[in-house]
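thread: overnight batch results

M.L. [08:02]
morning all. the overnight job finished for the chain we discussed friday. pasting input first so we're all looking at the same thing
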Amino acid sequence: MSKTFSIGGIHPIDRKFSKDRPIEDLPVPQRVYLPMNQHLGMPSVPIVKKGDRVKVGQPVAEAAGFVSAPVHASVSGTVADVALYPDFQGKRVLTVVIETEGDEWLEGIDRTSQLKQEITTVPEETFRKIKEMGIVGLGGAAFPTHVKLTPIEGMQPEYLILNGSECEPFLTSDYRLMLEHGQEILIGAELMRRVLGTDVNGIIGIEENKPLAISAMQKIAANYLQWKVVPLKKRYPQGGEKQLIDAVLGRKVASFALPISTGAIVQNVGTAFAVYEAVQKSKPLLSNVLTVTGSGPTIQKNYRFRIGTSMRDILYSAGALDPEGNLLPQFAKLVSGGPMMGKAVVNLQAPVVKSSSALLLLTEKETKRQEPGDCIRCAKCFQACPMHLQPYLLYQLALAGRTEELEKHRVFDCIECGCCLYTCPAHIPLLDQIRLAKNASLKNKRKK
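M.L. [08:03]
and the structure it wrote out:
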């Protein structure tokens, strides 16, 4: 019997058009842009200056604190600049820019594709490597992985849950990783499990619309006593930490509580693969896999990219740009991420970062918004909310600027999944207003 979470959720059409496209390696870019804010927490601090020469894998920025992560050069060459550059939304962030010269790697990194299955590192050494290699969560939030693996007093982990649900429509990068690198994923997951403790059990959650991935991971997990695969019903947003814990274990994370309070820690399959490379191959987080896709007339690709590659370079390789470097006329919008939680791109020269998962090309018809109408009190937004919130009430409180009441009605529990907006028959921009209200409330809290 497939499992699922107990509150809310929706069933959008899969649109996994790129699921049968094997992962391709993108050409090494001529220039990379490495932002210092590629993770949750304090931005990294540059340790290189303009004119410095660097090799692939060399640290170019160090962690600014415990909840932070270092950044490594994804190409070899000369540091062209350390300055503020616009990200994909136009926000200027401190960035290390490297002009590529050849492809010279730091000594000690194993670049071969040979599987290194035997685990020889002790948990303390594994933890140190994960921290030093800049590994962060690749499921979206980019939370530094070493922080999640750090014990919290009074909270004992019982389960390590590997998130292979990839519930967002269009996205297929995790799916391809499971098919092509399932063994490496399990080794990386086992390395993390051993850091947490020998009594911890491992569970891999995969939605049932990925039968090949379920079958492949089950065969591999059969060789690991502490691991099992749990098929999940297709349901969005099953990839959310709280929803996945509910689906797999039937345990609910309380408001303002950490997932570990339920005895579970969740990591993405992409993160597990990055841990394998960091510990077994001494390779920092230099690359990741993303999907270039869309439902219109577009090419379907799963690319392995060097972190810091510009979106323009990736779209050029995918055949989505005209000779002047602009989106082809049939594409009206580019989204970084999926259609539910992704955000519109305003700067094609911006780089893809550690946690980039997709570049979604949308047509004019797909981007056209209907004019919002009046609420008909249907309660569909309430029924769809996986956090059991009242989106329309939050929307009205946000419009009225009633900040304290927003907090009383748990606005910070909103995971911004977009289920309310998806189900609203009146096309009211519920999520947009709630997101703005959350940001305003956070600013007020910081001032206090």
